[in-house]
Amino acid sequence: MPKARRTKDLHTPEAPRTESGGPSMLIVEPGSLDGKTIIDAIPEPGPGSAHSALAVLGEASVPTEVGLTARVASATFERDGYKHLIKAAEAVYSYPANGARLSLPAQKMLNFMIHLAGSQNFANRLYRLPKRVVRGNHKGNERIFDALKEIFDSSLVVIGPFRGRRSRAELRILSSYVRPEEEDDTDAADIHFQFTDAFLEIQRTSQLWAKLSGPAMVKVTSTYALKLYEIGMQRYQMDYPSLELDIDTLRKLLNVPDGAYKDFGILRTRTIDRAIAEVNHLAPFRVSMPEDKIKRRGRKIEAVTLDFAAKDEEEVVETFLERERHSAGRRARRSGTVERLAIPTTIEPGPLPDADDVNALWAAALHALKGKVPAPLLNELTPLRVEDVAHGVRRLVLQTRTAATADAAGMNHWPTIKSALSSLTMGLIADVAFEAAARRGK
C-alpha cells in the first residue's frame, strides 16, 4: 500500500507553526470538550444492519490498528488527490445530534476535510486544506468560514455495536480551527483545523467506506440528495445493496428539519423523490424506493426500502456527460422538459475530413485533453481517419501501438475523449474508436 506523501505542499497537513510578519490568528477551542464519546444504549439491531462496530474512546485510550478505510484513504489521496474522496461507512450513516442541521456547503467541506485526514491515516494533528478545494466559483471567504463554524459547533450521532449492544455514540467533530483576523480572499490562503480524537478513532478503525466522486459531489444541489448519494456510493456494489430504514431514521439521515413534512406523502414529494431524481442524474447507480417494499401499519408508513443498482455502460457515459454540462438547465433536463429544435432530415452530411483536417482536429483535441488524460497515453495515440457509423454518427479512429493500450484507452478514457471531440466539432464527430496497429510478420 503506498504511503502518504511526505513532500511539503498545499495538500499535505502540517503541524501548527508561527511565522513572523504574518497575520495574527484567532484559535477557537471548545473548553468543555474532553474527547470522549457519550454512549446511550438502545435495542439490538436486526440482520442486515448498515453500521460497523463503534471505535469509542473509553477511560484510557490505547493505540488501535489502522483499519482498511484509513489505508484506502491514504492510497486514494496519493493517487487521485481530491478527485475521489474516501469516507468511513460509520460517518456516512451518521447524522447531526439534537435535531441540528448541517448546510450543504458544510457537508461538502466536511467530506473534503475527512479525506484530507485520511491521507495521514487519520492522525490527530492540525490539518491544512487549500481554500481552492472547497471554494468553487465563489470568491469570498465568508461562506467558507461560516461552514467551518457550523462544523465546529456540531456533534454527530453514530450508531453501531458497542460491548455487545447496539449503541448511540454522540461526539464532537472538531476540537479547534484557525481563522485569520485579517482574511485573505486569495486562493493562496488555507483552512486549518483539527478533528477530535473520538471522531478520528471512528474513521481510523473503520473497515467499510464509501468512495465519493469529488466532481459529482460538488454538483449536488440539496442536502437530501447528498446524503442519498453517499449512502448509494457505499452500497451499490455490494452483494445485497438494498437498505431498509424506518421513517424516523430516514428523516435523520436525510437531515430533514424536526417537525417538517410530518405527512409521509409530503415528505416523499418534497425530499425523497427529488433527491432520488437528482442522484439518478449524477451518480453511477440508480436508486429506487419500490412500492411493494413499503411497510405499513394501517394507513401509517413505518419503513421503506431503498434499492441501489449499478447503471449500464451507456447510462454511465450519459451521466458523465451530464456532469460535464453546465448546471443551467440541469433540472429541465432531469424532468425531460427541455425544448429540442427539430433538425431537418434533408440536409446531406458534408464530405469526410481529409488527413490534414484529421491531424489538425487531433492537435486541438490534445490541447483540450491535457490534464484530463494521462500524457503517456495521449502520446501513444495517432489519428487514422474519420468514418461514418450508424445513424449518421461520425467517429474518429485512433491507432495505438498495442492492443493493451487500445483496451485501456477504451475502458478508461473513451467518455473523456469522446466529449472533447464532440465539443470541438459542435457534435459533428460524436464518437471515438481505438485500433491496435497491425503486427508485422517476422
TrEMBL record:
Keyword Membrane attached: no
Source superkingdom: Bacteria
Chain intervals with Basic and acidic residues compositional bias: 7-17
Gene3D superfamilies, per the entry: Winged helix-like DNA-binding domain superfamily/Winged helix DNA-binding domain
Protein name: RepB family plasmid replication initiator protein
Organism: Azospirillum argentinense
InterPro entries: WH-like_DNA-bd_sf, WH_DNA-bd_sf
Keywords: Plasmid
Record region (Disordered): 1-26
Keyword Zinc assigned: no
